[in-house]
């Protein structure tokens, strides 16, 4: 990411898992004219491999076909974070079905995950800012649907985190947090992504079909349709009035789409 001979000095560093929220934020940033440095974290979760392979496809589509300014790196944190107590990383713990508001969903919390991600992203963003003498946004796709169950997705958490970053770094004023979905829900994210795809001339269905939201994908990478994350995604597309291009696998193995959504 170097601004020489380039008049566009809008830079963003994005934590992008390959899921629906962070991929939508990538499209949002591109629609706003940012050059985007993607950081993908392998933290040992069961869906990391599928998310990353599909993110590879999205990035290839955006760069090779659409020539958009996306730069992509993967950070492997699985050696340490793969030991954390969470059903997403510990194979001995079962990920429950249900809604995020349910008490049993706390087992899906990965301890200190967003603090770790944000700290690393901040270090990358501040380095880009100082190396190129530009301001940089650090972006994460957290939203208010996560607030109930994930304490590291709340406005209070990010406010305190940003204050800690500012207190602990010279030139901190060059980096700002950018959390455009913080007060919205997943339905708002789908609507925003659809609008931004239209603005950029991108294939919304292609991009969304390559996002993985599921906590319990099967051996073929197909979504279960029953975990909290799948449930919220299905509700989001219904709110947006759009058909989800992802198929979901019923418990008996039959694949089905999001019934009830318009074609």
Write the layout of secondary structure elements.
Elements: E1 11-15, H1 20-31, E2 35-42, H2 48-65, E3 70-76, H3 78-81, H4 113-132, E4 136-139, H5 155-168, E5 175-178, H6 186-200, H7 204-209, H8 228-240, E6 248-249, E7 255-256
Parallel strand pairs: 1-2, 1-4, 2-3, 4-5
Antiparallel strand pairs: 6-7
* CATH architectural name: 3-Layer(aba) Sandwich
Proportion in β-strands: 5-15%
Number of strands: 7
As an assembly, this protein is single chain
Strand order of the largest sheet: 3-2-1-4-5
Structural class category: alpha/beta
- Sheet having the most strands: 5 strands, parallel
* CATH superfamily membership: HUPs
Primary descriptors:
two-stranded antiparallel ribbon, 39% helix, Rossmann fold, 263 residues, 12% strand, alpha/beta
Explain what you see.
The protein is α/β, with parallel strands linked by helices. It has one domain (11-212): Rossmann fold, CATH 3.40.50. It is 39% helix and 12% strand. The chain starts with 10 loop residues before the first strand and ends in a 7-residue tail after the last strand. The model is unreliable at 252-256 and 259-263 (pLDDT under 50).
In short:
This protein is α/β, with parallel strands linked by helices and 263 residues long. The chain has a single domain (11-212), classed as HUPs (Rossmann fold). The protein contains eight helices and seven strands, in the order E-H-E-H-E-H-H-E-H-E-H-H-H-E-E.
């Amino acid at each position: 990411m170097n601004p020489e001979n380039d008049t566009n000095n809008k830079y963003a560093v994005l934590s992008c898992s390959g899921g629906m929220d962070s991929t939508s934020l990538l499209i949002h940033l591109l629609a706003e004219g940012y050059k985007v440095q993607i950081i993908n974290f392998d933290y040992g979760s069961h869906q990391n491999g599928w998310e990353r392979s599909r993110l590879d496809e999205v990035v290839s589509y955006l760069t090779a076909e659409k020539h958009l300014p996306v730069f992509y790196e993967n950070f492997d944190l699985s050696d340490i974070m793969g030991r954390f107590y969470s059903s997403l990383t510990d194979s001995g713990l079962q990920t429950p079905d249900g809604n995020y508001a349910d008490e049993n969903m706390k087992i899906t919390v990965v301890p200190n995950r967003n603090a770790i991600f944000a700290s690393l992203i901040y270090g990358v963003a501040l380095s880009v800012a100082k190396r190129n003498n530009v301001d940089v946004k650090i972006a994460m796709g957290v939203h208010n649907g996560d607030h109930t169950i994930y304490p590291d997705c709340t406005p209070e958490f990010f406010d305190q985190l940003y204050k800690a970053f500012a207190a602990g770094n010279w030139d901190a004023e060059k980096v700002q947090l950018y959390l455009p979905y913080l007060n919205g829900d997943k339905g708002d994210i789908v609507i925003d992504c659809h609008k931004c795809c239209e603005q950029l001339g991108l294939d919304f269905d292609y991009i969304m079909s390559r996002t993985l939201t599921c906590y319990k994908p099967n051996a073929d990478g197909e979504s279960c349709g029953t975990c909290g994350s799948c449930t919220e995604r299905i509700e989001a597309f219904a709110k947006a009035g759009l058909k989800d291009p992802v198929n979901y696998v019923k418990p008996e193995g039959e694949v089905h789409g999001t019934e009830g959504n318009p074609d």
